Amino acid sequence: MPSLSSLRTLQRQAFVARTAAHSFRRYASHGSGPHYNEPTGYLFGEKPLPPGQKRKKEAWENVWYVGMYGSMLLAAVLLYYKPDTSINSWALQEAKARMEARGEKP
């Protein structure tokens, strides 16, 4: 059976090796180059095209337009047709129904 001091020494060496391995690891910056997108002066980083050329759309752009404006249209339709659940409209309908039940004109 190993002695207590040798176990502590092994434990300490393992801890130092483990922390040293993690301290040199760089996850996001990859160790070289700028750490952010350098400003180019162009809108969205796209250089202007020569005269007479059209910009080519990327594959995701049409999906984004349909999804964004389609969801806005759907939200507008749903808001327009949403049921009226306010307390004021309920009270007005209830008052009219009670007045008609008593024979009075609302």
Polypeptide structure, described:
The protein has a domain at 57-82. The chain has 106 residues and is mostly helical. The longest helix has 22 residues, at 59-80. The protein starts with a helix and ends with a helix. Helices cover 55% and strands 0% of the residues. The model has no long low-confidence stretch (mean pLDDT 84). The chain contains three helices and no strands. It has helices spanning 4-23, 59-80, 87-102. It is flat.
| Portion of residues within helices | 40-55%
Strand content: under 5%
Structural class given helices, strands, pairing? mainly alpha
- Biggest sheet, open or closed, and with what strands and sense? none
What is the number of helical segments per DSSP (H or I, 4+ residues)?
Answer: 3
Q: What is the CA-based Rg, rounded?
A: 35 Å
Mean pLDDT: 84
Cα shape:
flat
